[in-house]
User: Fold these one by one.
Assistant:
Number 1:
Amino acid sequence: MAMSIGINLEFVRHADKPFEYGIRKAAELGYEYVEPCVATGRDLLAEAGYYHMLSMEEDPLYYKAMLDELGLKCSGLSAHSPLMKPEVAVPYLTQAIRWAADIGAPVVNTDEGPKPAWIEDDEEAFAIMRYTLKRVLPVAERHGIYIALEPHQIYTTRLDTFLRLLELVPSPMLKVNFDTGNCYLAGNDPVEFLKAVADKVVHVHAKDISIEQSVDERGKVTGTPVGCACGDGVIDWQAVIKVLKDAGYEGVLSVECGTEEQAAKSIAYLKSLI
């Protein structure tokens, strides 16, 4: 099997378009997979059709039917919930796991979240994240859904602390959603970072970073919502894909860009490489 190409629904957010528009556009552009964003509660903008977010209070099978009609599958769910806030993350991720199982998404993507002011030091932070993972991973194991941690905040964008985080709880369902753009902006070499975690990668955010954004933000931030079109920025995609192939990765490259035009350029570029 080869790698497949998918897209995060963020590519229609700035166009103020709903989920159904986004998946139809993804299918039209030739994508095989989509990555929906899910949340608890209600979102008035999404309800009005101005935003692609899905409420987990809705029936996941309703949306699965939409995907089936278009011949699309879910690569994963964007269900970011801060591991350092267990009162939020435990119920949120538990619900996301059940939703993922129903909609056919093998992965729930999340991160450690911004560090709350009340956490005094790293040891306390890791103890709290361990508690969250110990509560959530048994649910993931029962449903056969990966919890994939993404380089996005202060601990996941440092290789030493990311590796420590991945070993906090022994579970076959604790894996990595590798984000090329976040890793780069945090000051790392994405290719070398990827080599260190490639055996744990089950999902990839294919995010390129423009030269302008690189100059303005590299080393000052730990992530960004979306990037530019793949191939238009600074990421060495040939090297990234080689590392993934060498590791036997047969999953999805889920493009994270900001416009429909960038989505069209990204799939053409990535197809030329894989």
Number 2:
Amino acid sequence: MKKSKRFLENLKKVDIAKEYELPEAVKLVKEIANAKFDETIEIHFWANIDPKKAEQQIRSPISLPHGTGKTVRVLVFAKGEKAEEAKNAGADFIGAEDYADKIAKENWFDFDVAIATPDMMRVIGKLGKVLGPRGLMPSPKSGTVTEDIDDAVKGFKLGRIEARNDKTGNIHLVVGRRSFKDAVLQENIESTIQQVLALRPSGVKGKLFKKVSLASTMSPGIRLKVAE
């Protein structure tokens, strides 16, 4: 894939062999996140896990102290009092069979997080094949199948995200935007690293991370120095 001129210019500013201390990495990633829009900043963990082993899977909600800077659209599958609870908590879409049909028949995915009460799993179980690959299927492990709808909705609205390894064993998480102040972005990153470290599977030998890097939407990666 051909790289843009701007990407190649930014690449010259990054020492690809160096592991940067966090404050320096934050300043650099913001400097090279120089597109005409407010670029998203992400952290990428190359994890020392075997994704084929169920006991080494990493999947859990974590919370960013200052949120991601993104407006999160929340869909809640609930009825009765729990539906009202979702409305009061600020959910964007609330329903049951109606939204399950909308997803299945209309290929509708205008939401970022789907939350469900346990009794709703019988309604949305058939959606696993379409929601699963997109990382949108509600699950107890991700904190999105719960009776505490108020906490879940408010949590994801305020900056709760899901730390989940992909099929290669790596984890990719949004930690903020270029417009964030350095200190705010640094606090989000430090918190993310510590929370992911706390999810270390017991069967992992040696360090959890093979490599950690910071990158914006349109920039090259910057290796981070992380103490375990």
Number 3:
Amino acid sequence: MSIKAKVLIVEDEVPLRELLQTELSRSGYMVQTAANGREGVERYIEECFSVVLLDVKMPEMGGVEALERMREHSSIPEVIMFTGHGDIETAVRCIKLGAYDYLTKPVKLDELEIVIDKAHEKNRLRRENINLKLEIGKLEDHQVVGRSPEIQKVLATVNRWGATDEHVLISGESGTGKELVARAVHDASPRKDKPFVTVNCGRLDVHTAESELFGHMQGAFTSANKARAGLFELADNGTLFMDEVSEMSLDVQVKLLRVLETGTFRRLGGSRDISVDVRFVFASNKKLQECVEKGAFREDLFHRINLLPINLPPLRERKEDILPLILHFLKDSTYRGGEPWEITDQAVAALASHNWPGNVRELKNTIRRACILATEPVISTELFPFAPSRTLMSSKGNGGGDEEIGPLWMIEKDHIGKVLAAVEGNKSLAARILEIDRKTLYTKLERYGLET
């Protein structure tokens, strides 16, 4: 079911104001009212609406002046002007000031609802555009890659937790891919088509945290020249991912707990509660229970957000994921001459034996660095910022091998054979599953002596 618009009605005539409030509420809209232009501007500044119905002729502050004041604070809500004394000059002025439409009284309710729905859709697209701008640079490839039992267990939990609407806590070391898992939770939820907003709590100091999360009113602090919606409002009806939640100050933790329990908050400097419908996904690279014991994290907040935990193991505990990750990072990269990358067996073994204190992020950067430094389309151990372990070199020198990983070509041959068997020899389907073109598949089949 589509979410109805949050509407502010600014109308000085009591009977019409009450009639519109009653009928629109009955149709499923979330409605608030203001009796005059000045009150309407105050409501507009304090809370985030998607559509405003603004009467043109009102005492004290008319609709045109109110529209000017509103647009000084925010251009996000769509404003529909309506009046019983319409004229072209006023209509043109309102449109130039950013009004969505200009209607003449009396307005039929069904026609008004059509205009409101269209304005609401435009408002929704505007908010999504803002969120996309916030997320630009983070929209690369959000696929969680891995074949280990540990990562498969994580993905199964993601699908189970994603279908609910409860908050999720992801724990894991830095670089393990907590944001990718958070996005997977969002994509597995009924909110997948709604905003996914991220915030790194570690980058918020005590002075900026409240403004970023809750928004602020004009004049709330020295540099607050304009009212601003916070991330909670931008994530309304969607998911808010709060990374490094352990770094949040205790004062902000108290206010976050209130939002979780009531679904409401106040902008910094505001006096009115704002309601939001947000699904929270939290992440921490610290053990929150230990933070609680040290007094750095509130115990009541910890129990509130730890309802559905997901533990993301470090890369050193899921070595089976290293090779798929290597191939994944090399897949979309080509050498300067356009050739695909090759990687030596020694390089795969070196990567597999490394401890990876920086986890998947370190592996990705290592592969990226190697691609930059390479003078030919081959990744070798000389391109890594670390030396192969003595144990690895010794085993190679003695004619031994890494039995767990094995040569890359043998792993690839075995993998292709299993995929072909699974699809009963359908090479087109096998190529799609392997994420290679059919020509490349036939080349590999011939090279490895597999049935063509």
